[in-house]
Design brief:
single chain; mainly alpha; about 0% strand; globular
Length: about 110
Amino acid sequence: MSTNSPTIPAETARHVLWFFGQDGGYQPGSFTEHLLYALSFADMVNTAKVAEVYPDYAAAMVAAKLDPNGIASLQRIATGEAPLACKCGIGPFDLQGRCETCTEAAA
């Protein structure tokens, strides 16, 4: 998983959707819940620090907070809906619709 454009597993997307009270989400465990809470208050410097260890959660939270299409993208990831750019439909996907499986196979 690249930290430049991290892929977001469906489970991560569902956790972030739950945090924001959106359809398609479900409650994570207490550690992840606290991680999401911390990320919701983090500035970009601290978000980048957290992203070194949890790139998928940091990317998903930034998308949900700042990207106008972030919630919709996370909902597509959560349901396993393959983006148009994906050839295999396996995922996991990043927020730009790139599939980690397809990207690794092409390398």
